[in-house]
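User: What would this chain look like folded?
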Amino acid sequence: MAYIPKDIGADLSKAALIMLRDMMCVKEGESVLITADINTERRAVVALVNAAYALGAKAASMTLSPALPFQGGLANPYLSDPVVAACKNCDAWIDLCMPYIAGASVYDEAMKNGRTRYFLAADIAAEGIVRIFANADLDKVFAVSDIVNDLLASSAGKQCRITTPGGTDVSFTLANPEGLDIARATKPGGYFVPGTVMVIPELETVKGTVVCEAVFHEYYTALNQEPLTFEIEGKITSVTGGGPELRVIDRSLRRAGNGAYGNIVHFTCGYHPAARFTGRSFIEDQRVIGCNAVGLGLPQWVEGGGENHPDCVMKNQSLWIGDQQIISNGNFVGPDNLVAAASELEVVYL
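Assistant: Here's the prediction, encoded as structure tokens.
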């Protein structure tokens, strides 16, 4: 049965305003750019443009047609001159493209101009915008990510383990945190949608099995027929399962890894109280409580690497740092300050 969007007009207007005002910190007189593609839900674009206008900003939207075939650096040949020019000349840039533009050359230039605040929103749709930005208290969401990030930073060098009921059992040495900020966009730079925290491993220390229920390779899809199973011994040694998606992930891994499978680039911890796993949005699904988006390929500091890696999503994770269990089947169980902050998270109904 085809998915039929529901009428969320008033809720969407409020959520879009919260996203631009309280997340992206858009102010009167600023230039706001929304990049979208032909697959982006149109009402999400309109709501964000209207919110920018309501804040007194100068807003414009640009729609890529066709959509980019790849994300990041692999998108460079497919970006038109008008899009490139606009992305480098704005104060707030909301990227709704999927595949996304982050990691492309124009993104790198924008991140060095001392002006642009970039938001990787990708395939989040109108209902997802409502759930993420209007159905939870952003202060409480950020409070959790702040505590987790501090814990990860202070735990660099420790051994970690992640398991799931689906069969994941993987261990690695924790590296220093990296990536886009998960915070309010108060200064130039790149920002993630709140509700998840990135966990960076020392690449060659990752060993074990990762089993995922959804994948973003050349597109995002839930693996309804059969999960994908990755075996890792420093590098990814094999991929099995996935039904018809196995061939797509194989070529995507080889494309991102210079002909080889590459590494595990990152893990994540999803914890947003209102996020729902729909199988339609990579951005929202990975923020569901207990979900983990696993980056596959090569990191940007390795030659040929960058923000062009495929990702997969696994559910109901448990996480240990050293001898302390941090997450059990998606729920935070330690340390005490993290448990207390997570207990404050709740769904807010408009």
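The chain has nine helices and 19 strands. If you want, I can go into more detail on any region.
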